[in-house]
Amino acid sequence: MAQVTLHLRAETKPLEHRSALSPTVVKKLSENGFRVHVERSPQNPKRIFDDSDYEPYATLVDEFSWPQAPEDHLIIGLKELPEEDFPLKHTHIQFAHCYKGQAGWDQVLGRFAAGGGTLYDMEFLEDKNRRRVAAFGYHAGYAGAALALENWAWQLQHAETPLPGKKPYNTQHDLVHEVKTDVAAGVAKNDGKAPQILIIGAVGRCGRGAIDLCLAAGIPESNLLRWDLAETSAKAGPYSEIRQSDIFINCIYLDKPIPKFVTEDFLKEDPSSRKLSVVCDVSCDTTNPHNPIPFCNKPTYFDKPTITVEGFSNPPLSYITIDHLPSLLPREASEAFSNALLPSLLELPNADKAPVWQEARKLFQKKLATLPTSKNHNKNS
Question: Is 268 considered catalytic here?
Fold first, then answer.
């Protein structure tokens, strides 16, 4: 059996401090016969783990050297590759965000077709029960709820000024401490009333993370409205319950057309009943044609976490659409994700027989076949 070499690439997305592989997992891979190359971390964005943490178990290589790696090395990372046009010849394991009709999907897949490479999209690595083998959903929900609560508290004291930028927290404890302090100040400003929070997708990983953060921050259980398929299927949207909540956190997995949850026009129909001032779209389907929150149509970033929706005051209305929310807690999120991914990684030497990788490859080939003819010149076809 040939030895598998994994090449951990440096991330390029601003403020992306997570890693697809933690030093703990690299150690376990090395102990199981894998060779691991780790690109040195750039200073910006700097990986949450020091390069020296990997050194006993991996070979450190230059940052952004993966295009020159031998073709049989498997390139692993988290976020999208930089927008380039050179063909991709390697097998890549990453979140590519190109399987659901997102903007630029054909350019991404076209590079694989041109170079004969393969994409194993982490979002679609599933076990025999069709459940994702590893996901950042819990920490996405946790971080999204934290920012939503901080934004709610901030609005009460600085209605005309957007929430200031945020930087990653070294530990989860640091984040919770800050949010609890801010929420307490907001409650005091709000005549002692905690926010009413509606969470759609409450039973999934993402929703559980949002609920856990709210409870850790001191939000009473009675202020949490937990919705999932049963509630959204019971009646068509838009939903007055969203309009009447202070905070709406969207945690669904969107893979097909669904009714709109809330729209600007709906909020304006009955302005006297509107309490909604904060929307956190953790799902972050800003470019998805089926986006159920149409006004959440632009990305936000950690340095500018909110966008104000014009035409709303008393209360104002703003939204959060950061597509790498778990980076707010890069250490815990990376450890949890890479440990969940490890059992599947250990199957890579027999990827042709391992269902997780077999199905991921089939899905890649299926999506490749949807490329316009001008971009589907697959070297391996």
Answer: no
